[in-house]
Amino acid sequence: MMEWSVTETYEELRPLLFSIAYRMLGSVSEAEDVVQDAFLRYHGAVSRRVEIESPKAYLSAVTTRLAIDRLRSARVRKEEYVGEWLPEPLLTDESAPEGLRHVEEADSLSMAFLLVLERLSPVERAVFLLHDVFDYGYDEIARIVDKSEANTRQLAVRARRHVHDEKPRFDASREQREELASRFFEAVGEGDMDRLVELLAADVVVYGDGGGKSPSWPRPIYGRERVVKLFGGVGTMLRGLGGGIRRVEVNGQPGALFLDDQGQVISVMTVDVADGVIQTIRGVANPEKLGHLGPVSDTRSLLQRLRGQRQN
Are 214 and 299 in contact (CB under 8 A)? Predict the structure, then answer.
């Protein structure tokens, strides 16, 4: 009976705990590790017949504390990261594996929003997310982060101010975002440069995350002219390799998987839309951040193959 109860609790609470951990860490793999560790501790407590009044409160507290510890140890790693650091992409539409779909407010999952959270301290991030995104009360949050309730409220105000100042703007409807993104990725695939010009903001910016392990753009690329040229080359490369683009929803925003001729993932891209045009494009090509999406392509081998085709 005890085992059944723990299993039932796992199935019921895992989506919530994963949602908290992922927003805290920006990493699918680390969030899964944290949730697994939290449930192991819960199982151990139940086995020892520790009285747990609320499994949700217990597991939320353990998950949050583990995530805070991981964030503190990750600071140095991110400072040493090669190139731009972006969160691990999370598929949030029907193509996502069961258990990774989320029904919470999509904008709080966007890469832009997660990057804003990176500017908060680990405890500020926890307080803000638990209160403003997941509706936990200040009294419960105070116990989780081991602060007074008054101090917790102050942390929330400070975090909220930072987020409000830098929060990304999504003024287009979901249908408008999807329609614009579909046209963009179609234009990339077809090499339609004129259409790309029409779809991009004059000050559009592209961020790429290869982590030093896959070819990517080490610095942001600014401006419509440079971005059109960039994606013209991306489309040419993809067609030359016999690859393709599959539309997906990434972190609650329009996105796409770039695939090689074997259907393996080369990169994941997501776009931010405002004022009727694409303002920001983010691409993740670091293979260590793509493994949860399926088989990952060897991008360096693909480029060597493409160079060989051009020489022949």
Answer: yes
Task: Say whether pLDDT at 146 is over 60.
Answer: yes
Dihedral angle of Cα 233, 239, 243, 245, to the nearest 10 degrees: 70
The band of 105, judged by pLDDT with boundaries at 50, 70 and 90, is: low
SS (H, E, C) the chain: CHHHHHHHHHHHHHHHHHHHHHHHHCCHHHHHHHHHHHHHHHHHHHHCCCCCCCHHHHHHHHHHHHHHHHHHHHHHHHHCCCCCCCCCCCECCCCCCCCCCCCCCHHHHCHHHHHHHCCCCHHHHHHHHHHHHCCCCHHHHHHHHCCCHHHHHHHHHHHHHHHHHHCCCCCCCHHHHHHHHHHHHHHHHHCCHHHHHHHEEEEEEEEEECCCCCCCCCCCEECHHHHHHHHHHHHHHHHHHCCEEEEEEECCEEEEEEECCCCCEEEEEEEEEECCEEEEEEEECCHHHCHHHCCECCHHHHHHHHHHHHHC
Taking the C-alpha atoms of residue 87 and residue 209, their distance in angstroms, rounded to an integer, is 9
From the CB of residue 94, how many other CB atoms can be counted at a distance below 10 Å?
8
Give mean pLDDT, residues 225-239: 93
| Average pLDDT over the chain, rounded to an integer | 89
Sheet holding 277-284, edge to edge: 221-222, 200-209, 277-284, 265-274, 253-259, 244-250
The pTM of this model reads 0.89
Answer yes or no: is pLDDT of 122 > 90. yes
pLDDT higher than threshold 60 for residue 158: yes
pLDDT tens-digit profile of 278-292?
999 999 999 999 999
